[in-house]
């Protein structure tokens, strides 16, 4: 009898241990699933049916810019859009934006402008914290950033999957770089500036040939406060600058507005800005808006 009771106790102990292990495994699994549910960017990248790849783009200065490329599911060559990340570096959110641009029908290229500047020569992912990445962004020179973008735009234009039409868009720090790049490269088709600092020098503004479309938060005066003056300068110079200010939205509303915790103004701005951006992107396909297509490229 004693042996029988001991055997039963051992069986109960084994079953209890198995239950504990299963509970722990289930807990970790649900935490991971919930974490992804709370992160729209990670969920989008995980679920996307589109082809994603990393490419390494060499610059004339000898740098290598690691770039995330997303291809749309289309039956022809299409314009390309270069995405310039925030001062956080090339994170999942920025890569997710590239995926959404491809979903809209365009080849998207998102360069990691921190390539080669991180620990052991790494890029954004090599930094231990967002603050470390921000500090590294602050240390970049304008000349290096512009040269990196030159190389990425040239690569985009040379791809078999693209036409010669290349537009540029960016957010926060990347929005400012987008405005600056519009002044540097008169051959881009359009510039989409999301809550980034404006170019204010009229000599630089006069160099801009492409239309510049601005997306700004009404409660982001640090950035939005200069928009009215820049609009007046651009009008005087005969340049196209079409800013929209979203009432009540703060800085980085395109990122914060997609989260479950977004307040109404940021969510409203997020939805309206994406709708506007996609409508503007369609102009890249319109007759007369392209600098030209590659020989043999199918017409749009």
Radius of gyration: 24 Å
* Strand segment tally: 8
CATH fold-level topology of the largest domain: Rossmann fold
Number of helices: 11
Largest sheet: 8 strands, mixed
Helix content: 40-55%
- How much strand? 15-25%
State the CATH class of the largest domain: Alpha Beta
Distance between the termini: 86 Å
Total domains: 2
The CATH architecture of the largest domain is 3-Layer(aba) Sandwich
Strand order of the largest sheet: 1-2-4-3-5-6-7-8
Order of helices and strands: HHEEEHEHHEHEHEHHEHH
Looking at CATH, the homologous superfamily of the largest domain is Alpha/Beta hydrolase fold, catalytic domain
What can be said about this structure in brief?
With 300 residues, this protein is of the alpha/beta class. Helices cover 45% and strands 18% of the residues.
Overview of this structure, please?
The protein has eleven helices and eight strands. With 300 residues, it is an alpha/beta fold. It has two domains: 1-37; 47-285, Alpha/Beta hydrolase fold, catalytic domain (Rossmann fold, 3-Layer(aba) Sandwich). Strands 1-2-4-3-5-6-7-8 form an eight-stranded mixed beta sheet, with helices on both faces. Helix 2 (40-47) crosses helix 3.
Q: How would you summarize the topology of this molecule?
A:
Elements: H1 2-37, H2 40-47, E1 51-58, E2 64-71, E3 78-84, H3 92-103, E4 107-111, H4 130-139, H5 142-158, E5 162-171, H6 173-184, E6 191-194, H7 202-205, E7 212-217, H8 221-224, H9 227-237, E8 241-246, H10 253-256, H11 264-281
Parallel strand pairs: 3-4, 3-5, 5-6, 6-7, 7-8
Antiparallel strand pairs: 1-2, 2-4
């Amino acid at each position: 009898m004693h042996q029988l009771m001991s055997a039963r106790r051992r069986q109960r102990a084994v079953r209890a241990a198995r239950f504990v292990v299963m509970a722990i495994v289930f807990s970790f699994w649900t935490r991971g699933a919930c974490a992804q549910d709370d992160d729209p960017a990670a969920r989008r990248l995980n679920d996307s049916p589109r082809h994603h790849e990393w490419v390494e783009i060499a610059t004339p200065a000898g740098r290598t810019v690691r770039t995330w490329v997303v291809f749309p599911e289309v039956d022809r060559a299409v314009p390309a859009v270069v995405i310039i990340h925030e001062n956080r570096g090339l994170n999942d959110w920025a890569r997710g934006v590239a995926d959404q641009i491809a979903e809209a029908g365009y080849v998207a290229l998102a360069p990691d402008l921190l390539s080669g500047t991180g620990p052991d020569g790494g890029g954004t992912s090599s930094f231990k914290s967002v603050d470390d990445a921000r500090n590294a962004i602050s240390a970049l020179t304008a000349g290096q950033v512009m040269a990196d973008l030159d190389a990425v735009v040239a690569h985009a234009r040379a791809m078999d999957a693209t036409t010669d039409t290349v537009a540029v868009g960016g957010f926060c720090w990347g929005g400012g770089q987008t405005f600056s790049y519009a002044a540097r490269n008169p051959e881009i088709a359009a510039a989409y500036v999301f809550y980034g600092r404006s170019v204010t020098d009229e000599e630089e503004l006069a160099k801009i040939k492409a239309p510049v479309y601005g997306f700004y938060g009404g409660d982001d005066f640090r950035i939005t406060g200069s928009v009215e003056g820049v609009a007046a300068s651009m009008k005087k110079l005969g340049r196209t600058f079409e800013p929209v200010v979203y009432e009540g939205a703060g800085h980085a509303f395109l990122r914060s507005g997609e989260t479950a915790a977004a307040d109404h103004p940021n969510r409203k701005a997020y939805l309206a800005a994406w709708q506007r951006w996609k409508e503007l992107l369609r102009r890249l396909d319109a007759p007369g808006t392209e600098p030209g297509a590659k020989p043999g490229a199918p017409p749009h």
